[in-house]
Amino acid sequence: MHTLSKKEDNKEKKEENTAEAKTAEEITESVEGTEEVQEAPAEKSELELAKERADDFENKYLRAHAEMQNIQRRANEERQNLQKYRSQDLAKAILPSLDNLERALAVEGLTEDVKKGLEMVQESLVAALKNEGIEEIPVEEKFDHNLHMAIQTLPADDEHPADTIAQIFQKGYKLHDRILRPAMVVVYN
């Protein structure tokens, strides 16, 4: 009987070892399955991080591209303005000479030859300025603070209403839409 019991004990131990082995395999599979589950979110988060970085890089690229376009647009506008107003400094230097010619022509007692010569010089200067886009500011009867500078006022009356120009002291000039020098005028007030 004792031998039988040893065989039964061995058989029971083998069954227990087999059961333990099966349980160990199940636990290992379970742990491995858990690791796969744990790795899946880690891979997913890495993928999400990569997508976020790609989106961030794309956003930065689009911003840089837009900034470059803005820089190019501003440079083109600046270049066009420089071209459009390139003769501004020259005009400002020439205008006093033109004023002096007009004053010289207003002097009485000039010979016809001198007067004719001064008029020719004046006409050539005005034509050269006009070719560069520089024009005299038209002086209408109504005072416009954007185009005129009031240097003196006179009292208004029935014949001369307020804010009308009485006299022009110095002509004003503009280059395209930019005022080079406002016209200096006397205004009824």
Automatic annotation (TrEMBL):
Keyword Transferase tagged: no
Localization, UniProt: Cytoplasm
Keyword line: Chaperone, Cytoplasm, Stress response
Stretches for region Disordered: 1-47
Biased composition (Acidic residues): 26-38
Entry annotated with the keyword Chaperone: yes
Main location group: cytoplasm
Classification via Pfam families: GrpE (PF01025)
Transmembrane segments: none
GO CC field: cytoplasm
UniProt superkingdom: Bacteria
Record-level GO BP terms: protein folding
Compositionally biased tracts (Basic and acidic residues): 1-25
InterPro entries (alphabetical): GrpE, GrpE_CC, GrpE_head
GO molecular function: adenyl-nucleotide exchange factor activity; protein homodimerization activity; protein-folding chaperone binding; unfolded protein binding
Family: Belongs to the GrpE family.
Function: Participates actively in the response to hyperosmotic and heat shock by preventing the aggregation of stress-denatured proteins, in association with DnaK and GrpE. It is the nucleotide exchange factor for DnaK and may function as a thermosensor. Unfolded proteins bind initially to DnaJ; upon interaction with the DnaJ-bound protein, DnaK hydrolyzes its bound ATP, resulting in the formation of a stable complex. GrpE releases ADP from DnaK; ATP binding to DnaK triggers the release of the substrate protein, thus completing the reaction cycle.
Oligomer status and interactors: Homodimer.
Protein name: Protein GrpE
